[in-house]
Amino acid sequence: MTSPVHRVLRALDRFHADRPWDHNARFHPWILRRLPARVDSALDVGCGSGDLARLLAGRARHVHAVDADPVITARARELTPAAVPVTYAVAEAPAGLPGRTFDVVTCVAVLHHLPLTEALVAFRDRLAPGGVLVVVGLHRARTPVDHLLSLASVPLNIALALLRNRGRGAPPPVSLSAPARPARTAFPEIARVARAVLPGARLRRRLFWRYTLVWHRR
After folding, report:
1. CB within 8 Å of 218: residues ≥ 6 apart
2. What is the dihedral of CA 181, 187, 189, 193, to 10 degrees?
């Protein structure tokens, strides 16, 4: 017999499938507030449909955006006006990242798909002196704090789904067209690895099953 908890979870899954909204886009203004007003170059890893890359183009003279999915990368090119200085490339991170350095490196909801240490080393090595790395990632809930934040996220998630979709069903945003892979690494392990690779990195758990990482290269 199915327990009441499982029935509730299945009902929530159906609700959110009918009323999706882009949790990652919610962090875009937060990311921009962590960046200088103007930079020469930016690298967006796992760009998806290019929403963040186009925003970064308002700060950077040039943005290089990479994604492993050729279909969504093609869609990003279609959505980006010719005058917006973004170059898109199909590449697997971290091995396929450009060999040059950038003033800004961003990575949103992609790091849990990559080998953690190798990816953070690659991000560090692509960051120019004085540059900033900003990551929004997913982690597996394991600690009491994780579970409390997950619990608090549920009613907020429902409320925002209703507000953004005006109470109606909706197709998924372009950036959500690919199924999400659940995170397997817990936040304490992510923080331990990040601080070893990026001394002084600031990490924080967030609502909506996310964490953030900010690191400035000296």
Report:
1. 129, 130
2. 90
Placement of tokens 């953690």 in the chain: 116
Reported as a single tens digit per residue, the pLDDT across 154-192 is 555 555 455 554 444 444 454 444 455 788 999 999 999
Helices (H), the chain: 4-18, 28-33, 51-56, 70-79, 116-125, 144-164, 187-197
How many other C-beta atoms lie within 10 A of the C-beta of residue 61? 12
Confidence of residue 25 (pLDDT cuts 50, 70, 90): confident
If one looks up domain 25-139+182-216 in CATH, what number appears? 3.40.50.150
* Whether the Cβ atoms of residue 139 and residue 187 lie closer than 8 Å to each other: yes
Strands 210-216 and 202-206: antiparallel
- Is beta strand 210-216 parallel, antiparallel or unpaired with respect to 127-138? antiparallel
Angle (nearest 5°) at CA 19 between 163 and 76: 100
Is the bond preceding 81 in cis, omega lying within 30 degrees of 0?
A: no
Length of the chain: 218
User: What angle (nearest 5°) sits at the alpha carbon of residue 162, between those of residues 158 and 163?
Assistant: 115
> Could you tell me the strand order of the sheet in which 210-216 lies?
86-90, 60-67, 39-45, 102-108, 127-138, 210-216, 202-206
Domain spans in the chain, listed from the N-terminal domain onward: 25-139+182-216
